[in-house]
Amino acid sequence: MTRLPTSPTRGPVQLELDWDALEIAVERNAPDTDSFLDLTTGKVVTIVAGDPEAVHNRQLVSEHIKNFLRVEPASSREQYRWMEKFVGSVSEEPLRERLIISIDGKGAFRRFKDVLLAYPAERERWFSYRAELLHWHIQNWLAQHEITTTNAPPWGKVEAPAELPVVPGKPVVHGAEAPGEALRRQARDLIDTIPAIDLPSAIAFLEFLRQRGADAIARGERDAEPRGPSPTDDDGDDDGNGHDDDSDDDHGEHEPPRRAAS
């Protein structure tokens, strides 16, 4: 999707901000989606390729470009680093091992989410941690563009997120041989020891596992469609480390970030 230009902030701006819409825009990191903050109203205009309102919204922004500022979402690369830090703080060794494997390679965000579904306490901790980082990102972005608000954010005062403790154990490192590659090498070594007569059964089982994974991905994409696009990367399908840009998978099913108690 061809991106519209955006003008720099016109100096200090004060407005009543639609915080919830801005939060969604910061999460929404898809290559087919652009979000703009209206500096006159505090509203967020989102342009989604293929959406019936896309032409109207694009025209609205292009005709009044000086009134709009492009929202800079947290990139997949940045959100992947958050995920790595979280995995490094998991104290339960079996879960930590599964998460290390889950974030290696294509589909990392989806697999990470799927693993956490079976661990509600850790899943809740992840969403709380991620919300803190997103809110800090929003605050820094507003300060960078000299934007102040007349209304406080619904999640309360934002402070720099504390660093998560690093639990001793297997490090979250993707070096010369990533965890997934080590397992694939182990599988190949095992196949070399299987008698030829048993190979058809082994191949059939591997085909079953591959199809099951493909079906799970297709289901996840269908489930996310009614909710619209969600956060992914700002620079294509890769976060720079061989991981595909699917951080939007969280947004389709995740719990909303916790708000401050009123």
Structural class: mainly alpha
Mean pLDDT: 78
Biggest sheet strand line-up:
3-2-4
Helix content: 40-55%
Work out the strand percent: 5-15%
> What is the β-strand count?
5
Low-pLDDT residue spans: 224-240, 248-262
Q: Give me the strand/helix succession.
A: EHEEHEHHHHEHHH
Largest sheet: 3 strands, antiparallel
The helix tally amounts to 9
Number of domain modules: 1
Give the overall shape, derived from the CA principal axes. elongated
Distance between the termini: 41 Å
Describe this structure in words.
- The protein is mainly alpha-helical.
- It has one domain.
- It is 47% helix and 8% strand.
- It is built from nine helices and five strands, in the order E-H-E-E-H-E-H-H-H-H-E-H-H-H.
- It has helices at residues 19-27, 54-63, 76-88, 93-102, 108-116, 120-144, 179-193, 199-224, 249-253, and strands spanning 13-15, 33-38, 44-48, 68-70, 147-149.
- Strands 3-2-4 form a three-stranded antiparallel sheet, sandwiched between helices.
- A hairpin with a 5-residue loop joins strand 2 (33-38) and strand 3 (44-48).
- Helix 1 (19-27) packs across helix 6 (120-144), helix 3 packs across helix 6 and helix 4 runs antiparallel to helix 5 (108-116).
- The two termini are 41 Å apart.
- Residues 224-240 and 248-262 have low confidence and may be disordered.
